[in-house]
Amino acid sequence: MNIRTKERAAVRPAEIVREYGPFAEDGKVHGVTHDGRHVWAATGATLIALDPASGDTVRTLDHACDAGTAFDGRHLYQIAESRIDKIDPATGAVVASIPAPGHGGDSGLTWAEGSLWVGQYRDRRIHQIDPATGAVRRTIESDRFVTGVTWVDGELWHGTWEGDESELRHIDPADGTVLERLAMPQGVGVSGLESDGAGLFYCGGGGSGKVRAVRRPKAPAA
């Protein structure tokens, strides 16, 4: 199902509350996820886990990781070239692999509702896919390049990054309508995105090699 964004919401500045790193071995952070305790960042050849309180790196897993990262409560999922690897975080072992829908053009990755959600950067799309087979269940279209993707409290958010402009966008998963826009400072990009399930988004900083925590806006009072 292809659904187009119908309108845009007013843009507000993103509130960056903390920066971590730089960490990246290749100069980039590609994807991020949160396992309920640690923030994981994909840095090219190594997945690192950092303690968001101290900023210390507490785990490293040697694994190809050139795009989005996700966590389903037990396993990590990592985009590597044209596949998505399911990884046991305790051992680093790959327990399964499925094809990525973008065949190498994939960007963000997150887990929600028993599905993986995969951003397609230049195709400006988000796919909901079967985590066991990689089959596409539905597609949401955007009018901007899609980087990171995350769900929190029933809200679907994605990152955009075009030129020196980057935003976090809350969209309606039913029809793609843009509901909220948070603009990053000029020249600060979002390469990956994940919520901590509470009040923060963690954003991969692309070529900066950094991870940034951005405050999630409070929902309007009912």
UniProtKB/TrEMBL annotation:
Q: InterPro entries per the record?
A: PQQ_rpt_dom (IPR002372), Quino_amine_DH_bsu (IPR011044), WD40/YVTN_repeat-like_dom_sf (IPR015943)
A matching Pfam family: PQQ_2
What region holds the Pyrrolo-quinoline quinone repeat domain? 81-215
For this protein, what is any one GO molecular function term? transferase activity
Q: Which UniProt keywords apply?
A: Transferase
Spell out the Gene3D superfamilies in the cross-references: YVTN repeat-like/Quinoprotein amine dehydrogenase
Q: What is this protein called?
A: Glutamine cyclotransferase
Native organism is Piscinibacter gummiphilus
What phylogenetic lineage does the species belong to? Bacteria, Pseudomonadati, Pseudomonadota, Betaproteobacteria, Burkholderiales
